[in-house]
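Batch 3, record 17
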Amino acid sequence: MQTALHASSHAAPAAPCATEQAPGPIIAIRDFSFRFRGSPRHALNDVNLEIAPGEFVVLTGPSGGGKSTLALALCGFLFNQVDGDAEGEVLAGGLDVRRTPIYDVAEVVGLVQQNPEAQFCTLTVEDEVAFGLENRCLDPGEIRARLDWAFDVVGARHLADRPLAALSGGEKQRVAVAAVMAARPKVLIFDEPTSNLDPTATAQIFDVIAAIRALERITVIVIEHKTAYLERFAPRWLRLVDGRLTEAAHPPSNHVFSPPARPGLSHFGSALAAPDATRRSTAPPAGPVVTVDRLSAAYAGPPVLHDVSLSVQPGELIAVMGDNGSGKSTFLQCLLGLLRPAGGRVEILGHDTRTTPVSTLAREVAYVFQNPDHQLFADTVWDEASLAPRNFRLWDGAAEARVASLLEAAGLAERHTDHPYRLSYGEKRRLTLAAVLSYAPRLILLDEILIGQDPDNAALLLSWVQACVAAGSAALLVNHAPALARQVATRLLFFDTGRLSIDAPIAEGFAQLAALGRTAYLVTESGGRL
Amino acid sequence: MYHPGHSWLHRLHPLVKLAWLVAGTVFVFVVRSPWAGIGVLALALLAFPLSRLPLGGLRGTGFFAVFAVVLFLIQVVAHRTGTLLLRIGPLRVTTGGVSAGLYVAGRLLSVIWMSYLFVLTTEPNALAYGLMQAGLPYRYGFALITALRLVPVFEQEGQTVYQAQLARGIAYDRGGPRRFVTLARQFFLPLLVSALGKVDALAVSMEGRCFGKYPRRTFLRQVRFTRRDALALGVLGLLSLATLVTQLNR
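Prediction for the assembled complex:
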């Protein structure tokens, strides 16, 4: 930046603005508050912020704290598309964002959203990156030049001719970054850009952010829970809690997992520790919960799982890891019988999944899917939590007490009668887990349930799983958070292109990962590598 | 449906192929002769080698072949005009019946077969871009592209919702109409909520990249019009002219 200023002041000495004094802020927010229509409280409350050109800012805070709302305010969407009341001032590159068309704000601010898939407007990589430039009516020669530049920045030139649907998660997000970069915004906002990505792809995205930093002194704002990856940028840390913005001197909370501070948990723990085995159709397991023998599995095409063998005992909490597409979710689907083995055998508490209906297996096996919105079916929070035990004809006084204590622990006790879709993302996540723990399943399958959860919410969810495991259930936790897995899991399963490449006690498992050179999985929360 | 390839037919401009499809369809409906359908069908069958498609990839053609035979037989039995050819009990087969049967079956098969060739050799994306560059307002073009992009996503999500329901003991195999309504709501509400979220994210992404800023936009991807296209369009023009002349002279 400094050298650039020197150069420009040499080239144009007459220009009065090209002096060496500190430039004005690129972002200036003054006394800004925002309340969504119909909401009792402010999503953003009296926010004041100045960001200098070229600054690198990391914005953290609990989910629901207002981070994404702030990002939408900076891009102007909050004032065009969202119903609500705004007060105060938002300036970006000197533009009054509240009164400027989004198209003009877009020349200053570019936003990369959380889910790469949701932000694609076209079907192929090249169309996607060209999209914003075509809309600006640039001529094809200029578009081609900018495309080449943007592909080089994110390292995606080799992907140019591919259909978007054929890319991996990390590749998709790189293309999404290129598509925003191609317009050369002065400010680039990343709203949790890696939350859908595996550690390998996450590391790649942060390398892309580093490359952008090295290339252009562009102003970067990153909203992110994975602060460990960001310390190398020596950023300015900001924290947004309940709509209030504060500067944080140090990177926030170095802990990943600490016992949650929510009341009612001890009560809840004892409720979990007393599963009523007598009402079950099967006796408590003496042997393994899961036996998998030379399992191979396939959807329509070629096999996605090859030759997997293992067994799971009661009381195990197993971290299941691997790159996206390595077969983790497929493996979980095989355990509930949603996918029958193409070869080999899966037994759950002695039931062979080839011959047992899913409805029978589901009484013993809980499955929580990644996106809460796909698994809320009832009209009230209470009905949602009690839906499964009723369906399984396990509804009795004990189940009712259990649901009550689960909802209490989830902080949803006062919201019994609310519609589940009125809950925040974090609350929905707690409800979907409560809804499967309500019938005391013996095997708990959790597919990336920590995505987009702040550390406190993640800790709370995991404490429930730990309580169930202590009470004799077994749990498989598919996740992309190695540091967290090390802390809570007893065993590691690592999938690599459909094969179970590591099955070991947790510490030994990570040692094997190191030996395999999977360094992306060895990031510790303090930012170093193991 | 699209079957990727680089054949002569694949490389034809999507709009030229569309013109052939439309013209062929109009032809078989306007020219009321059994030879119309059979002629177009023969032409479309002759075009098949130009597509270099594998024969095994044409799912569903068998169904339409059977359907066409049934249609043919119904027409044969229903019409009793012209010369009597055959009498089977109470059924009479006449030249009028055979002619009507050939007309209807040929018309069906030729339209189906042309559509197959069109869909299998035309990348939907190229069709959308081709239409926009030919003057279709780009908002409609991108509506088509968005639909193409979201259909497989919703298919996948529907699968996930169904699995999540199975996991929570929501059974599909019992209950009457009231239960069916509940089931339908429990299935579609999650999909709807998820779709609305996707639409929000997409709107942010599109407007954040200046979609709709100007009434027109430029295109990096040029769907090119080549000599091959000129040839195909020329032949189509000549055939159309010939048809027009013969029809007017009748």
